[in-house]
UniProtKB/TrEMBL annotation:
This is NOP2/Sun RNA methyltransferase 3. PROSITE patterns: SAM_MT_RSMB_NOP. The keyword RNA-binding applies. The keyword S-adenosyl-L-methionine applies. One of its GO terms (biological process) is regulation of mitochondrial translation. Its main location: mitochondrion. Belongs to the class I-like SAM-binding methyltransferase superfamily. RsmB/NOP family. The gene is NSUN3. Transmembrane segments: none annotated. InterPro entries: MeTrfase_RsmB-F_NOP2_cat, MeTrfase_RsmB-F_NOP2_dom, RCMT, SAM-dependent_MTases_sf. The active site is at residue 279. It is found in: Mitochondrion.
Length: 354
């Protein structure tokens, strides 16, 4: 029996970590010891010596960095000049063979963030604040104009917005099963996307595990930004008892992730591209999930994305995954992005086993 999608969506990341207190002392008091101990036990084994630095950054929100994704539909020219003056730089465009010129994301090597914009009906926002590593799944998908694309677990909408900065799809289906997050997704799209493009976007509230049966072989590209342990926000859980419960329930997350991927594979046309991503360091939710998919679906083949790690090392710190098709961004000093796992698969024309 699979875990409730609604229950597990509670522990998914929002586009930005929630605000914590101003002083480091206050920040430390809000760290959930139950979760930290759980991470210590798991990630010290999985990451080895790298965990020490990762732990330091994850437990110190004052060190976190925020990237600025500019909205090409209401381009902030003055803000762009200001970002240049403040020392921001663009995400390495040479890192991707088909990097979209229309997408501009600015990164800073120092902590801090510019103010968020408020939602105003009828007015498009000019920028979106995010963890820069969350753009890697979008870029790995390599969306082109006219393609049909599915964002299976789309809320809060940041990756859908980023996809539309890259290209103009023929059809974009944004799906979110959780009702509260579904409303958040709709508002995000309305805040960034002009009406003519909204008309080629479908927003649904379906169980993602059933999407493949509902729309078989419909899409050229599918993004599965799956429900996961969401290490950054989970570490600051305010209720230790609930945190303990979530640790226990989290052991079932790989089952849900595999079911979502199987549905995504059904929805993907032969020859199409599937990108899977999470915001957790957990091997069980990352490499092991993809390993299971590859071993049980002979029509899915890994796509080599190791080149991204080589060319993106200026901006991101990568940990070994043992997979050609998988990358793991871990927070590093001066590169406090992630966690973010990204895997890329292709669907061949042969029949897979289930």
């Amino acid at each position: 029996m699979f875990p409730s999608p609604v229950l597990n969506r509670e522990i998914i990341l929002s586009p930005l970590p929630r605000k914590i207190g101003k002083s480091e002392g206050k920040l430390a008091k809000q760290i959930c010891k139950v979760v930290l101990d759980h991470f210590e036990n798991q990630y010290s084994k999985e990451l080895g010596d790298a965990w020490t630095t990762v732990r330091e950054i994850l437990t110190s929100p004052s060190c976190w960095q925020y990237a600025v994704l500019l909205n090409r539909f209401n381009y902030p020219f003055e803000l762009e000049k200001d970002l240049h003056l403040k020392g921001y730089h663009t995400l390495s465009q040479g890192s991707f063979p088909n990097y979209p010129k229309s997408m501009k994301c600015y990164l800073s090597r120092t902590p801090g963030r510019i103010p968020s914009e408020r939602h105003q009906v009828g007015n498009l926002k000019k920028y979106y604040l995010l963890n820069a590593a969350s753009l890697l799944p979008v870029l790995a998908l390599e969306l082109r104009d006219g393609e049909k694309v599915l964002d299976l677990c789309a809320a809060p909408g940041g990756k859908s917005v980023a996809l539309l900065q890259c290209a103009c799809p023929g059809y974009l289906h944004c799906n979110e099963y959780d009702s509260l997050r579904f409303r958040w997704l709709r508002q995000t799209l309305e805040s960034f996307i002009p009406q003519p493009l909204i008309n080629v976007i479908k927003v649904s509230e379906l169980d993602g595990r059933k999407m493949g049966d509902a729309q078989p072989e419909m899409f050229d590209k599918v993004l599965v930004d799956a429900p996961c342990s969401n290490d950054r926000s989970w570490l600051f859980s305010s209720d230790s008892q609930k945190a303990s419960c979530r640790i226990s329930q989290g052991r079932n997350l790989p089952l849900l992730q595999i079911e979502l991927l199987r549905s995504a594979i059904k929805a993907l046309r032969p020859g199409g591209t599937l990108v899977y991503s999470t915001c957790t360091l957990s091997k069980a939710e990352n490499q092991d999930v993809i390993g299971e998919i590859l071993s049980s679906h002979s029509n899915m083949v890994p796509a080599d994305i190791k080149g991204i790690a080589r060319t993106c090392s200026r901006d991101f710190t990568f940990a070994p995954t043992g997979q050609e098709c998988g990358l793991l961004v871990i927070p590093g000093k001066g590169k406090a992005w992630g966690p973010m796992y990204v895997a890329k698969l292709k669907k061949s024309w042969s029949t897979g086993k289930w």
